[in-house]
Amino acid sequence: MRAKKVKIILIALFLISCTMAVFLSPYFALKSITLKDDAVHFATILQNEDIAIGENLNLLLLSKGNILSGHLIEIEDNLKKNVSFKEISIMRSGMNDLQISFITRKPAMCFGYQDYIVYFDYDGTIIDTSYLKDENAIFIKGVSIDYFYQGLNILTCNYMLDDISLLCQEIEKYDVSNYTSIRTLINNIEIKDTGSIVIRYDNRLEILIKMTNDVKYITNVMCSILSSMSQNAKGYIDFTISNTPYFTPAS
């Protein structure tokens, strides 16, 4: 009886050894890495995280993740520390392949700080700084902070920035749905002390909006007006006087 148990244990150990030998053999060497979505930082991912073609994929997953789920958890966590990445997923696709899917943050808005232009996305995450203004980012005037760093959420520093971010997103959605280019014609948005903002548009219009109102509704009304107005119209559009926006031509 005892000899039978020993025999069973030896057979089990032999089978485990054979399985591990096959499991960690060159047959499972990493052959390809496929990127989906945004292909920026491809070289950085491979270089910084030591994902090498030819490395045994099973061994890589054992040391840095979970074979059953196929996710390289440790590498994902490291990459998430980089504020440039908004979302990232690294997973096994097939026997010898990895699939890396990620989205990088894009500068949507910016503000001035001393000699710098500070860029942040719609979520409010500060991404980068520059001495030059990116024409694709909307400049926000009136932002006052004592310090900043990459990764700081600027929306927590000024209560109106959250609504301004929503306003800019709604303008972008309107442009996509209606084949307009309203967002690109915004010169800047200025935060006023009264809880209002002034949108300077196409160097010919100033739009005054009270940000305590329904931002989505007002934004769509504003976009509808701008898309139907004459391109030569100059003056002021005031959303703060009544429920109906009031237009005053420039004198």
Question: Summary?
Answer:
This protein is 32% helix and 27% strand. The chain is α/β, with parallel strands linked by helices and 251 residues long.
Structure write-up:
With 251 residues, the protein is of the alpha/beta class. It is 32% helix and 27% strand. The protein has six helices and twelve strands. A nine-stranded mixed sheet has the order 6-5-4-7-8-9-10-11-12, covered by helices on one side. A three-stranded mixed sheet has the order 1-3-2, with helices on one face. The longest helix has 22 residues, at 2-23. The model has no long low-confidence stretch (mean pLDDT 81).
> How large is the count of helical segments?
6
What pattern of helices and strands is seen along the backbone? Answer: HEHHHEEEEEEHEEEHEE
**Helix proportion:** 25-40%
Query: What is the tally of beta strands?
Result: 12
Structural class: alpha/beta
Shape: elongated
Strand sequence of the main sheet, in spatial order? 6-5-4-7-8-9-10-11-12
Give the distance, in angstroms, between the N- and C-terminal Cα atoms: 107 Å
The quaternary state of the protein chains shown equals single chain
Task: Describe the SSE topology.
Layout: H1 2-23, E1 32-37, H2 42-49, H3 57-64, H4 73-80, E2 85-92, E3 97-104, E4 109-113, E5 116-120, E6 126-130, E7 138-141, H5 159-178, E8 186-191, E9 196-201, E10 205-210, H6 215-228, E11 235-238, E12 246-249
Helix pairs in contact: 5-6
